[in-house]
Specification:
Length: 244
């Protein structure tokens, strides 16, 4: 599809990633899993727990620096490939264009008058990444054995995306290359920014989301490194907290 060769895994870069072993990270993730599996702390202790969990996460992220799969250029560089791929596979690509709406981000803008109730946008199911397509992918054998993947479709989809993202020959690469690389949700906030939320009602949800995400990552890192059905997953050597 034109730019498939531009996917790369930064396995050699500077810093700890060049020499870190899976065993080192496995030890840290085991400690993280234990910390995140502890009962919810009492009133006034949530911040202390959050800082402890974040400290472990930052140690893991530092060791994994340079291991993530990345794409050269900006996401909008890949929009032409996306439209070509969509068109070749039966999606509608006429009557609108992709535009950056400044603060709102990228979206579609009509290039002609669209009548009320007119069908102008359709996407064949084969282009969608779904739990069903995950079960039929390289992730299938692990999915059949892991109860958390079977019970939580959102996590299955996350792994489906990460596996396909790590495969330069993936059918979905033209779509994956156009996805955002960062978001502005509290999960991505710096510690000082989270501290500023302590007096708000949102802080408990922020703590809970961060703890749950860290627990999930720690659990699945061990699964990816030790489960026999995970041996052939393309993300086995590049399953980073940052990507998850």
């Amino acid at each position: 599809m034109g730019k498939k060769s531009r996917v790369k895994t930064q396995k050699s870069g500077t810093g700890a990633a060049a020499s870190v072993s899976p065993k080192e990270t496995l030890n840290l993730t085991s400690e993280l899993l234990q910390k995140c599996s502890s009962p919810t702390p009492g009133p006034g202790k949530e911040w202390e727990e959050y800082v402890q969990i974040r400290s472990l996460v930052e140690k893991i992220r530092k060791k994994q620096k340079g291991l993530s799969v990345t794409f050269d250029g900006k996401r909008e560089d890949y929009f032409p490939d996306l439209m070509k791929w969509a068109s070749e596979n039966g999606a509608s690509v006429e009557g609108f264009e992709m535009v950056n709406f400044k603060e709102e981000g990228f979206g579609l803008r009509a290039t002609r008058d669209i009548k009320a109730e007119e069908l102008f946008l359709w996407v064949p199911r084969k282009l969608l990444m779904t739990v069903e397509s995950a079960k039929n992918s390289v992730l299938g054998p692990l999915y059949s054995q892991d109860r958390i993947l079977q019970a939580m479709g959102n996590i299955t989809l996350a792994f489906h995306l990460l596996c396909e993202r790590a495969d330069p020959n993936s059918f979905w690469q033209p779509y994956i290359q156009t996805l955002p690389s960062e978001y502005d949700t509290p999960l991505y906030f710096e510690e000082d920014e989270v501290r500023d939320l302590q007096s708000t009602q949102a802080i408990h949800d922020v703590f809970s989301q961060y703890k749950n995400t860290a627990r999930q990552y720690a659990y699945f890192y061990k699964v990816i490194q030790t489960h026999p059905h995970a041996n052939k997953l393309p993300l086995k050597d590049a399953f980073t907290y940052e990507d998850y």
